[in-house]
């Protein structure tokens, strides 16, 4: 080995140890991802629709952070961070589902109101309103509503 190569070995060793020390000091990538997911769920404008799920995500994140402090970068800390991230994703999805359910119910109510107005204007009896829990596809219901005036004109 040349003198220059011998001098490079300790430098490379020092740099690699510094890199390891720096990475061990910071939070694991899993925990960073879990934190970001919980913040995203919390900042979601629809988050009030999934308060319970958001609270579970925040609790799971607290467990992950506690586990990371006790045993940095351990499998249990990574697992806890994974659970927190998934809970945050569940919170986001739950809020979207609830918002869509609400929009669907408003559309159904609007459809029923339009059918009643149309029936009163045409002198026909108002159609029976489907039960709120009825899981009728909205597109099919709208197609049926569009076809009614055409059938009565024949």
Q: Give the ordered list of helices and strands.
A: HHHHH
Q: Number of DSSP strands?
A: 0
- Number of helices, where a helix is a run of at least 4 consecutive DSSP H or I residues: 5
Going by helix content, strand content and strand pairing, the class is mainly alpha
Query: Low-confidence parts lasting 5 or more residues at pLDDT below 50?
Result: 11-15, 148-154
Helix content: over 70%
Name the beta content range. Answer: under 5%
Structure description:
Helices cover 79% and strands 0% of the residues. It has helices at residues 3-25, 29-43, 51-70, 75-122, 138-153. The radius of gyration is 29 Å and the shape is rod-shaped. The chain has 154 residues and is mainly α.
Give a short overview:
This protein has helices at residues 3-25, 29-43, 51-70, 75-122, 138-153.
Secondary-structure topology with pairs:
Blueprint: H1 3-25, H2 29-43, H3 51-70, H4 75-122, H5 138-153
What are the defining features of this structure?
mainly alpha, 154 residues, 79% helix, disordered C terminus
């Amino acid at each position: 080995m040349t003198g220059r190569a011998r001098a490079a070995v300790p430098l490379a060793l020092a740099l690699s140890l510094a890199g390891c020390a720096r990475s061990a000091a910071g939070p694991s990538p899993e925990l960073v991802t879990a934190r970001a997911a919980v913040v995203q769920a919390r900042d979601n404008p629809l988050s009030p629709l999934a308060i319970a799920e958001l609270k579970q995500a925040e609790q799971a994140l607290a467990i992950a952070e506690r586990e990371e402090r006790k045993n940095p970068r351990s499998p249990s800390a990574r697992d806890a961070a994974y659970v927190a991230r998934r809970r945050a994703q569940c919170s986001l999805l739950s809020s979207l589902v609830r918002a869509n359910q609400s929009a669907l119910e408003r559309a159904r109510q609007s459809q029923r109101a339009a059918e009643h107005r149309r029936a009163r204007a045409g002198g026909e009896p108002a159609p029976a309103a489907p039960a709120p829990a009825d899981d009728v596809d909205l597109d099919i219901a709208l197609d049926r509503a569009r076809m009614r005036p055409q059938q009565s004109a024949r």
